[in-house]
């Protein structure tokens, strides 16, 4: 890279680092970046080269923690409270948090009652197909309320939800057909993309906001699992106590507790992510470092299983589905690792482990793609085969580019920002593919 490109890469890394501090709002990051550029220009005019000007300008900006505290004092409403229920401060400070809690609880109850109504009035197949549609509007509604979405963005979200609901419920699908199953499996991806638009406050084109949504998704999964584990223990203890008195909790569990509490817990998890992001952010690097080598070993085992499976036309269909599940897990782990990494950190051992993980995943994907193409050539195309082939092609492109950028990062020829931007830029591709499967596969394959 030439000198201007190196300088821009350094500014991008500093900007990413500042953006990770939750006390600094996105608009303020833009303001701080402009201030940094002005200092750099002044120092270059004074005779310093680009690297010297950047280092001196950053030093004069002060330590990031001090800058964050300064902005936090100026914008106290943007601070992440230690406890949302009982924050320190005046009643004026408390009321916004209480209003948000009221909105969250209302959305949680609404989602729970919507799922309960769906379970009551829909048959099992229709209920499972529409399950995401019963919950996602409440998640998007809470995030949209918090972001104060513009009417145009709200219109886009409502239109997307209506179109998706119409496709899932009005298309003449064959009962138990492949295209119906594919639509039901891909609809949650489309729904989560719409939730992402609400989370980004309509600024989905911003790479920063898309990466924030990646973090939100990962942290939401962690909080939801923790809530589910805690809730499971509590329900188990309660059921045990009831059984000692001769009461059976199972009917209430099936009819009310699970249908209402599980979607409600999902909304509560989203609220916790918004309120306590720093808690999970501290353990995210630990989780990624633990699961990266373990997932790599799992992929190696999968690669051996595929290599020893014999003729690729006879490879078990369930094994290929399992491979896709593992590859999606790898993709999620890579993206969450990128979101949790310090952008200013020098390339190290963990980046090498990430490259190894992505490389093995590419090898597995290549074998899986070969098996899929062989099966299509031998037995012909079907909705399931085409959908799986398309997904694996998307994964191959994503993983290949990620491997190339990781290699460039380790060789000090690429900035970390390039890798981060690639992850976020590719997200809409998955949403577009999922939308294509939901909308087009039914008519293309005769709704079978």
TrEMBL record:
InterPro entries xrefs: Perm_prefix_1 (IPR047928)
Keywords linked to the UniProt accession: Membrane, Transmembrane, Transmembrane helix
Keyword ATP-binding in record: no
Transmembrane stretches, start-end: 101-119, 125-143, 155-174, 180-200, 220-244, 256-274, 286-307, 319-340, 352-374, 386-407, 427-447
Presence of keyword Nucleotide-binding: no
Protein name: DUF4153 domain-containing protein
Annotated source species: Isoptericola sediminis
């Amino acid at each position: 890279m030439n000198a201007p490109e190196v300088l821009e890469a350094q500014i991008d890394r500093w900007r990413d680092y500042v953006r990770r501090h939750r006390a600094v709002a996105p608009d303020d990051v833009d303001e701080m970046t402009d201030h940094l550029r002005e200092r750099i220009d002044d120092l270059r005019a004074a005779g310093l080269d680009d690297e010297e000007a950047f280092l001196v300008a950053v030093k004069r900006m002060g330590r990031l923690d001090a800058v964050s505290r300064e902005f936090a004092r100026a914008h106290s409403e943007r601070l992440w409270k230690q406890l949302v229920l009982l924050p320190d401060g005046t009643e004026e400070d408390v009321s916004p948090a209480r209003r948000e809690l009221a909105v969250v609880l209302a959305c949680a109850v609404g989602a729970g009652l919507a799922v309960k109504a769906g379970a009551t009035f829909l048959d099992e197949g229709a209920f499972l197909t529409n399950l995401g549609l019963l919950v996602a509007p409440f998640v998007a509604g809470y995030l949209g309320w918090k972001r104060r979405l513009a009417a145009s963005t709200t219109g886009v979200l409502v239109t997307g939800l209506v179109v998706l609901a119409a496709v899932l419920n009005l298309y003449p699908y064959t009962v138990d057909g492949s295209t119906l199953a594919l639509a039901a499996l891909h609809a949650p991806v489309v729904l989560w993309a719409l939730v992402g638009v609400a989370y980004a406050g309509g600024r989905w084109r911003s790479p920063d906001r898309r990466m924030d949504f990646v973090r939100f998704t990962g942290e939401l999964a962690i909080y939801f699992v923790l809530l589910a584990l805690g809730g499971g223990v509590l329900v188990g203890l309660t059921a045990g106590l009831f059984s000692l008195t001769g009461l059976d909790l199972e009917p209430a569990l099936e009819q009310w507790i699970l249908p209402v509490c599980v979607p409600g817990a999902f909304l509560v998890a989203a609220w916790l992510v918004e309120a306590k992001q720093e808690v999970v952010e501290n353990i995210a690097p630990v989780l990624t470092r633990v699961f990266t080598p373990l997932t790599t070993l799992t992929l190696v085992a999968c690669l051996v299983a595929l290599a020893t499976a014999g003729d690729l036309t006879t490879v078990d269909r369930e094994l290929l589905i399992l491979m896709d599940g593992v590859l999606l897990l790898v993709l999620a782990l890579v993206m969450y690792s990128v979101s949790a990494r310090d952008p200013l950190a020098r390339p190290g051992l963990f980046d090498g482990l990430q490259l190894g993980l992505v490389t093995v995943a590419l090898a597995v994907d290549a074998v899986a793609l070969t098996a899929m193409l062989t099966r299509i050539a031998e037995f012909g195309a079907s909705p399931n085969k085409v959908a799986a082939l398309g997904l694996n092609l998307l994964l191959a492109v994503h993983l290949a580019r990620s491997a190339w950028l990781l290699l460039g990062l380790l060789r000090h020829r690429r900035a970390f920002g390039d890798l981060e931007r690639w992850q976020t830029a590719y997200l809409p591709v998955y949403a577009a593919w999922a939308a294509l499967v939901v909308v087009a596969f039914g008519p293309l394959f005769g709704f079978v």
